[in-house]
Structure formats: C-alpha cells, structure tokens
Design a protein that fits this description.
The protein is about 45% helix and about 10% strand. The protein is α/β, with parallel strands linked by helices. The structure holds iron/sulfur cluster (2 copies).
Length: about 400
C-alpha cells in the first residue's frame, strides 16, 4: 500500500468509523449480492488494518505482517465492485468522505499493482484514442448525420458563445445518441450560439479518476481547457453529470459550466423554449453524480414540472437517497452481473410508482436502465430529460 495516495484528512477520517454499519445497509452492491465484503465498513476496516500493518512498531506488537500480493489482489476485487454511488458517504454519521476515500484507495491499488486488468484498457484507450471506448475520435460527431439537413460545419464552428461538451457515451453509443441529437435541435430552437469541439473533445478524465488513474488526468484536462479557449466560449454545457462533476472539481474555474438541466431550466424561464402539453405520469431518477455528487436535485424537477400536463411521482428513494442504476464506477466493465442486479432493484422501484415513463438526466443511467428494460421486455418508457423537453417544446 502506498500511503501517499491518501490526504491527511482521509487518513484521519478512517479512524472516525464507529462500525455502525449504516453504510452497509444502504449499499446497492451489498444488497444485490448479500455480500458484506462489498460494504464501506468492511473496506475501511481492511484498509486501516493494511495501512497499520506497514508500521514496524505495529508489526512488533500485533505480529501482523503487511498484506501479501494475493491478499491485496483479493481485496482489490471487492473494492472495484462498487458503483461509487456515494450513498455510504451520504449516510455516514461520522461524516467520513467515503466516496473520496474509494477514489484514493483505487489509486493506491493501481500503484500497488493490485487492480483488475481491465483498468489498463481505460488508460490505454484514453491516452491513444482520447475516448474511453477506443473509437476513432474523428467520429465524435458522426451522430450529426442523423439530423435532417445538418449544416456544413456539422456544428463544429470556429467560435461560439457556448460549447456543448457531449461526453464519450453520448458521442459513441447509438442507443443514447438521441440525447445530442435532441439537444442540438433545442439549441437551434432557442437560438443559442453553440459549437461542438468535434475531435478536439477528449474524454473528460472521469473514467480515469474512477479507475484509480488520477495521475493520468492532467493531459485531458489541459487539452479540453485549451480547446474551449480556442472557441472563445464563455459557457460549457454538459448532458453527462460525470463530465459536469469532473469539470466542477478538477478543471480550472475559467468558464461558466452548466448541467443541461440547469441550462434548459433557464431557457424555459426566459421563454426561449416554450413548452406544450404532454399528458404523462413521470418518475425521476437522480443520477448519482448529479444528485449526491453535485447536489443538483431541483433543476431537473423544475424542468419536468414546467411541462403542462406532466405529473411527477417520486420514487420511494429519491434525491439524496436515490438508488443507483448500477452503471457507475466502471462497474459494468468489471462485473456486468452485479451491475444488472443493481439495475433490477432500480427498475422494480420505478415500476412501483405506476409511472408511464422514467426520466433521468444522464446518458449512462439512460443506457443502463434502458438496456435492462429492453433485455427483460419491461414495458416502461425510459427518457433523458433532454428528450422529454424536446418532445414538449413548441417548434417554430
Ligand atoms: S459508493 Fe455506493 S456502491 Fe460503493 S460502497 Fe458506497 S454505497 Fe456501496
Ligand atoms: S456509516 Fe460511517 S461510521 Fe458507520 S460503519 Fe460506515 S464508515 Fe463507519
């Protein structure tokens, strides 16, 4: 273990755990597999033991040796089976910033060589292709082909007031490309001077952070900041909460940044987007990185409630208690089965509301929930908030 991967407050906080086990009770991974080794309390206790075992004095008195490579590897497997949903952090009565510690712990495991091999793929893909899926980055705007009469510039203009940062998932996954397509049309309707970055948009760096590769985020951060500067833009809009949170926390404060729910809310307020009636019963899923991660619970609800005829039915767990969809923390890549088990619990809660549609505000949540619903032939509409507004907006 490499102690320098943790901040001093993190090391101090590790000692504040009272073993109350509340973090285990709310953990979606623990509930899905009934496996206590996936809980925050187990993880923290093991980590503390491993760190202490490196002290000679501790070894002398306790006769405990530092973990072997096999023990570390086994521990690493439990650490990465976590969606980084942050529910444990939210409930911890001792105020331990557990999610932050999980990021540092993953970094520690990478430095110690005890991490799932698939993590190497994320590092290589982002370094070589500048996106997490190893696609040709020139194809980032290929979805523009699906618009009727796209402009010659394909929305990659030399300069603009607003940059729309699409994120890797929306740019490359056909299932969710309806988000950028709808948002582009909404921007046109609202007469927003916007541009895409095209192949100059690189992965925001969040998948690296979540993988334990914090040391590798410098290049994408620097590159993306310069790409936005070159456009002369003042504002950057994100439909992906992970990109938004990444920019909020790890990028220099140089531009006004907005999650799309906030931006759409202001366009509705100013009358730049006029909404028409939709008779629909909706439930809203708070994406972990937008809700618990960025504390934005109100903007999406205000947008939904602005549509005449729509009724919003809250799920049993909502806002800071919202259940994860199973798609975060690179879990889908590490343990697809667990990711689907978590999605099943989410869908069951959605169905219990009796809503016609579940709306979210994240391309990854949309992909996870929609994939589960399709695979299991569940009859519920799954929409992103951008699509919902696109459906309601009065066209010229
Ligand atoms: S972040 Fe979520 S999945 Fe991970 S340990 Fe905490 S509650 Fe469990
Ligand atoms: S909720 Fe906090 S104090 Fe309670 S067991 Fe988990 S980490 Fe420890």
């Amino acid at each position: 273990m490499v102690l320098k991967n943790y901040s001093i407050p993190e090391i101090l906080q590790m000692e504040a755990c009272t073993n109350c086990t509340l973090c285990a009770e709310v953990c979606p991974a623990v509930s899905a597999l009934q496996d206590g080794r996936l809980s925050g309390v187990y993880r923290l206790d093991t980590l503390r033991g491993m760190i202490r075992s490196q002290s000679r004095l501790f070894q002398f008195f306790s006769r405990r040796k530092p973990p072997t490579r096999t023990e570390l590897k086994k521990f690493g497997e439990t650490v990465y089976r976590c969606t980084l949903c942050g529910r444990c952090q939210e409930i911890c009565p001792s105020g331990i910033k557990l999610r932050d510690i999980w990021f540092s712990l993953r970094q520690d495991l990478v430095c110690s060589g005890a991490y799932p091999e698939k993590i190497n793929m994320i590092r290589e893909n982002v370094a070589l292709s500048h996106n997490v899926f190893d696609e040709d980055n020139k194809e980032r705007v290929d979805w523009v082909d699906d618009l009727q009469n796209p402009p010659d510039h394909y929305y990659v203009k030399d300069t603009a007031e607003v940059v729309y940062f699409t994120g890797c998932v929306a740019a490359f996954f056909p299932m969710v490309q309806k988000i950028p397509i709808a948002l582009t049309q909404l921007f046109e309707t609202a007469k927003i001077d916007f541009t895409l970055l095209g192949e100059e948009e690189w992965c925001c760096g969040f998948p690296l952070l979540a993988a334990g590769l914090r040391n590798h985020i410098k290049d994408p951060v620097q590159h993306n900041i310069e790409a936005v500067r070159r456009k002369g833009a003042q504002k950057v809009v994100f439909a992906c909460p992970s990109c938004y949170q990444m920019w909020k926390e790890y990028y220099p404060e140089e531009f006004e940044i907005y999650h799309v729910s906030q931006f759409l809310n202001s366009l509705i307020d100013t009358g730049q987007l006029e909404l028409s009636r939709l008779d629909l019963k909706i439930t809203y899923h708070d994406p972990c990185d937008l809700g618990r991660g960025s504390m934005e619970y109100d903007a999406p609800r205000e947008v939904i409630n602005a549509i005449p005829g729509v009724s919003l039915i809250e799920m049993e767990h909502n806002r800071d208690k919202c259940l994860c969809c199973g798609g975060g923390g690179n879990l889908e890549m590490i343990d697809t089965h667990l990711s689907r088990q978590i999605a099943e619990t989410k869908i069951n809660e959605v169905l219990a509301t009796g809503a016609d549609a579940v709306v979210t505000a994240c391309q990854q949540c949309l992909r996870t929930i929609l994939s589960y619903a399709r695979r299991n032939k569940i009859k519920i509409e799954v929409l992103d908030i951008v699509e919902l507004i696109h459906r309601s907006v009065k066209k010229d």
